[in-house]
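fyi for ur records
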Amino acid sequence: MESHSSAEFSSNPDQTRMDQLINVFRVIKYRQASLEEDNGERCFNSETHWCQENHLSLTIINTKQLVVISGERTENTARHHQRDTCGEQVNSFKFLVHITKDLTWITWICICSHRCRAEEGTSAPLLPQATQRHFLNGHPSSMNLEVVWSYIGNERKKHPPPSFLSQHVAGLYTNSTSSVLSSEESSSFYSEFGINLDDYYRLQSAVYWAGPDRAITSVSMSTSPGHTKFIIQDLKESYQIGEELYVTVHTKDFDNKSKGYGGDFFQAKLFWSKTKASVFGEVVDLLNGSYSVRFLLPWVGEAQVAVRLIHSSEAVQVLKHHRDTDSDRVFFNGYYEGPGPNKTRLSETVKCNVKWDKNGLEHMGTGDFCCEYNDPRTGETWRCQRPKSLPCSALVYHSMGGYRNRLTVEEKMLMTQTNKGINGDKRIIKIFHSNANGTIDVTEKCRPGLQTPVPAGFYLNDVWTSFVCSTRHFTTQMITECLKDKHIYMMGDSTMRQWFEFFVKAVPTLKQMNLHVQYQSGPLIAVDVMNNIDLHWRAHGVPLRTLKSAVADLHYISNEIDDLSGGSHTVIIFNLGPHFTTYPLDFFTHRVLRIRKAVLALLQRAPATTVVIKTVNTGYKDIFGSDWYSLQLDRILRWAFQDVGVYILDVWQMTACHYSKENIHPGPIVIQNEIDILLSFICPY
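which gave:
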């Protein structure tokens, strides 16, 4: 039995053979002592036939075979494998996950779980929708598997894969896949930034999110925070510092029925209020209605577990649907001004937004109905409705316009079950010093390119200890010494502006100048003449939800970086996130990759430049700025810069696990700890 990639291919008989790359993943089951022979010819007759129908060619020489025999090895199966010479036999290969003969990969795709089995001939949600496969009824202990993987394509010309695939729920929505960009546009764009096939699949894997495997016909079928429970696995009387604790979350719907699919968005932490201690928990979706949570035990003392349902899997589908079809639910104002008759001034206000003729943004109109403002360096276009009496060149100001809430009654009900605490095991975990005098302290010096583990650190007495590299607390004098002779350029949103405000307040000799601009968007500058410090902040450019600001002051980050010479005295810090939550993932990816290109060019001409990326905060929970949206953007940002040689400052975990009231703009304690890490990057020891 076999299935093929769900990517769309042209069936136009007049079209020449398409130069596209696909993967074929075939699973054959052997029953104990008898072999179910392939229909047709011994090799890949069915794959070849399917490819021919879809104007593709099968490259047999690239075929890999992985034979897994976990049941009884019969003479029949042995003879079959010995005589089968169709392609190279291997012990492992990479296909979304690292697939090996020891079946450890099966845990990831949930084949071992009886909840995830599918009846023969039906589809099971074992792999991401873009590469969803059929799987046969059975259990690894009583069957043999032959996995055949083939890399198919025209070797003369390689196109990148299709764009992001949107997944919806049957019932409230229709299951479908849609390409945001045509293959020609994708090829031109991604090749420009050096994104190859493997890179793209890593991106697809990073943003993949499971969803319901059935039609959602009633809100009662969604995950119920009241009926969902968590239990601590094999709780011991005591633990040693550095050990791990595992928790399992079992989801149920509002009818108190166990759910059999994944896709819920949970956040979990281990905490102890008396010592102001907390650590982020790693949640793994088992794709069968259950979730595994792993905690590191990093402090000596006591702790408890807390789990929150941020969004049900059904609510996540609402978020996906509106991102894919309703991106203009946040809109902006453009202000036009110019001379009128008799020395008067004319002014008009119109609606503006990103030019992206999909995802609902086409509602703005095209052609003579609009003014378009193309940035020649980034290639991005901002579009406004054409004013009635003024020319397009008269655009002077920009501001946030408003919000459009187009949720249906059912969608609103699904979104009300947001950020709810889950009932579960409240027993106290007792943690003692290690008998082996072990330590969990990180001694590695901070340097660019370090990976961010989970957890990335922990709070104890309101002080964050990093697991990325060795950090320290900075006093006012130490801050001044660290920033001396530095040009610091901050670019991003208001959460980055909080860092600018911290430095201005913490360093008495750092004086902010009044540039007579809109404070929310900048640019802002502070200088310390005595210590030769200049500190800058500006917003990241449109789209930007801000008060009325001069368009001339809104610059794209990539352009700003291109205009800096860099060097050992230059520090560049930027972030992106909350202002992009309503837009298609491809749009955000384009913006990020343009910044990536600018950073690579900067580090090539001035390799001593320090570049720091601040990740996304948690905080928003609604249709206009959900944490789930932010998490998707955060994964794209990390994917783009994972190999660039920059510092990545993870504030996602720091804001998610702290005890303070959730706010997209965290309080002083969190900001202080973020600054300590930032300065440890700039001035490592």
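The chain has a mean pLDDT of 80. thats all i got for now
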